[in-house]
Amino acid sequence: MDLALERYGVWLRSTVVCLCGALGVASADGAEIPLALSLLVPALLSCGVHLYALRRPLPLAPLWTLDAAVVVLTGLSQPVLGGDGADVMVEAIVSICVITFQHEWATRPVAGAALAASGTVACALGDILSSPGHRPELADLVRIVVLAGLSRAAYLIVRARARVADRSAALRAAARREAEVAAARRATEREYLATLHDTASATLLMVSQGDARDWSWLPQRAREDLEALSAVPGFETGSVDLAALLGCVPGGPGGEGQAMVQLKTRIDGPLAVPSGPGLAIFSGVREAVTNVARHAGVREAELRAWAEGDGAVVVELSDAGRGFDPESVPARRRGISGSVIGRMHAVGGCATVTSHPGAGTRVQWRWQAQARAPQAGPEAQAADMPRPTRARAHTAVVRLIRRQLLHGAQLAALLISLLSQFIFSLQQVTAYQSVYQPAWAQTAGYVCLAAVAVTGAAYLLRGRQIPPRVRAWSLGSVLTVSAVCAFTLAPERLTGAEDWAFGLVGWHALFLLADLPVRAFAAFLGAHVGLNAIAVFLSGAPTVAESAVMGITAITTCGFQLSVGVLLTRLLHGTAPEAGTEAAREEELRTRERIHEDMQRDHKERYRALTATTVPLLMGLGHGVLSPHDEEVRLRCGVEAARMRRLFAESDAVSDPLLNELRACVEVAEHQGVTVSLAVRGRPREVPVQVRRELIDPVAVTLGHARSTARVTVVWTPRAVRVSVVGVNCADGRSPGDAAPSHSPATDAKVSVARTTRGGSVWVEASWSKTAASEVDRT
């Protein structure tokens, strides 16, 4: 904004100096023309230097010295030039310089104030020297000082509104950044859980069930799972050949698995796709093949892949097994919802599962290049995914900046209107009552403009825009006042000291029309100047000198007001979008940094949690240290599989998260052949996630050791919750109390756990009370 104001000040001063100088030379006598031209040389030189400095910055000291020399020499030139036209020209040049200095030196207010003081003193001295024995015109000097103050005040008002816009945009950007970071973390968490489900969870569950005769596949599978968990969850960059990936699906040609599935493949390759969707489809197919081996009751399936004419890539896996009802699958089962469907949704594709009992199953993955640009991973996915949302956010920021700048400009114009009307115009309209014909018309016009200013202030000072009807009424009133004042004042006095309305009308129109295109304001000023011109020409053609004086006055008043309107248009339609674009770039950079930092931290936390339980198991199984034939190893794998299933259930949107997570653990125990009964008493209440982890973990451990039956009970009271389990025929009668802790980091949830062992039965109860618990974050 400061750069735009500086450019505006330089160009405005250059334009006014050239035009007023030309009119001043035209109105001068022949003998005074050389002196008038010599006066313009320093001013034109200063303008040229400043225009050059806009392209190539120059030292500030020479620029300030040149500006001071111009206003001092111009102000002191009055006794040399003489005449009314020269005085008007000098006052116009000094006034416009004093005004624009507050913009050119906006970031250095002391320099701008010193230049304004120099110009005022020079004009006072020039007036004294041109009229010895007479006091200088105090009204003109006060006007220059007030104009400088108003120019500075207008800058401060607009800058204040711009800073309000910056703060509001920063707050909104921070809110969007937090939302995007949260979305990225959720996406990464989903991918992490899906990876955990397809790798370690599936492997440990198979080991815990102990239903494989040939464990030769296990070491390689455990090492691959460990490698997958140690990598940052997400998709790699670049593109892949999906046909080559599908040829590596476990159970397919050259693959190996717990129970081989013979795949009949029909793949129309190569199929080049971005690696994100490619890996998502590969992981989903691998999980689907595993489901065929576990649940379909057949050992054959057909895998097809092809590209369609619209650019879509389709992969289909079908079997002729026992089938199932997809609607009856619980939400906590991750094979379909997370590994197959959820993964494809995360990369902008889709997956469908079609099956009926006794009619087999068909799973289809579909991804279309036009639907989504390639992504570099969850980090880039979260940062780049919401392009429409980012576009809307950028538009909202631009609108906010425009609204604040517009409001600031209207307040500045209103301030100038009020001060001009109640300081300068009031003095003029009261001092020259005898000049007006009739005087009551001028007084009525003054009161009408005052009413317009007060009405505008009533809306703008409350932060509201002026309604269209009020604006239309106000504009009609202002234009009527312009016509009344022009035709009730002698033509030779128009634009002179007696004409209080000529310079005031434009400021009223500016705050009324600031939100419209500048051509509307230009048309109003044209009508205003045209009415005054008609009033002048109806009484006869003016002389060249009179025309020059009127032209200089019109340029320094209406021309200056029009330039302010042009500047406002530049700020609203140039600076505001640029500021919005820069803010969007900065926001995107900060968002990417935050996402990267949070994802790295989350990954470290996850891997640190796994190192206590899952990683030792996978390392032992992968390097032959632990044997799947060992019952103790299978027990540990079963407990860890139950903990993972409880972790998967944390992300479900259900009314009773505690019960949902318990059921996930119960389901694992049932897969191991344990008959589990679950009873719930009382009304469920909210329990923090960390507390749920501590409550359920002892139950998961006990269920993992049970070998025949188990009974789980949840008791809710208004202030507490208790979760108990009785495991019958626990393995070797050992108490599970020394089992390793769960994945979750340690908390201060203060969950109390009581254990009792009697023979082969184990009773464990975990309880938590709100009154006894310390403050726990609700996540």
Describe the structure.
The protein is an alpha+beta fold and 779 residues long. Among the domains are: 1-136, no CATH class; 235-376, 2-Layer Sandwich (Heat Shock Protein 90); 646-769, Heat Shock Protein 90. Helices cover 63% and strands 11% of the residues. The protein has 22 helices and twelve strands. It has helices spanning 2-27, 33-55, 60-76, 78-81, 84-104, 109-130, 138-209, 218-230, 242-246, 275-296, 334-346, 378-384, 387-431, 439-460, 468-487, 502-513, 518-538, 544-610, 614-622, 631-649, 657-671, 689-705, and strands at 239-241, 262-267, 272-274, 300-307, 312-319, 350-355, 361-368, 675-681, 709-716, 720-728, 752-758, 761-769. It has a five-stranded mixed sheet with strand order 2-4-5-7-6. A five-stranded mixed sheet has the order 8-9-10-12-11, with helices on one face. A two-stranded antiparallel sheet has the order 1-3. The protein is elongated and about 120 Å long. The two termini are 43 Å apart. It holds the Pfam family HATPase_c. Keywords: ATP-binding, Kinase, Membrane, Nucleotide-binding, Transferase, Transmembrane, Transmembrane helix, Two-component regulatory system.
